[in-house]
Structure prediction request, 239 residues.
Amino acid sequence: MTKLHRKDLKQDEVRVKVAEAVKSVSLHGREVLYIIVIVVAVAAIAFAWFFYERQQQEAGQKLLGQALEKFNAPVAAPADPNMPKPTYNYSTETQKYSDALKDFETITSKYGNTPAAEMSRYMSGICSFYLKDTAKAEEFLKESSKVSDRNILYYQSRTALADLYSKTNRFDLAINTLQEAMKRPKPQVPQEYLLMQLAETYDKAGKKKEAKDTYQKIVNDYKDSPASFEAQQKLNQVQ
Prediction:
């Protein structure tokens, strides 16, 4: 083989390798481009979702404010010329709670994954209770109680649910519900007030010993709390 021929072969090999290298770079370049496109798309989706969530929360909070204003509106109140005119004024309690309940249910339906919806489930239970629809109230409060114990509604829902059970003579359910709440103590939820409700429930259920023991625990363990004085008074009244 002549030197010239060998030189041509080497040049051909070089050209092939250069072509392969260019092709490889081109392929990797397209892969990088695809990755960039995917990252940008994911970022765009995340931003859109964040914006959507923010809009949902703001809309839910606005409607919640309206619903709470209805819930707290005066009933058959005469106009006071020295006071600002209330936005809502109802002739009956039933009318007021029915109107507020519609808003709370709308929030729950439209903004189900927002803090406003969590509060609305609880308030729907309260409205239903005042409207004497205990079955519906129980349903709402059970749903409301499913939040994390980091949420104050975890405790509010259970105390309201226990009160409902007590008023419908389901004392064992009321006691169990309060005990469940007390298993997860939090500084923002005074234990002595949960104990007070528990003692009152024991008393209504005819469990006098348990009632006395619970009142006594409040007196002994929470001497500096206003609940201690009330517990002592109730302890003296337990027959």
Notes: DSSP finds nine helices and no strands in the chain. The radius of gyration is 33 Å. Confidence is low (pLDDT under 50) at residues 3-7, 37-52.
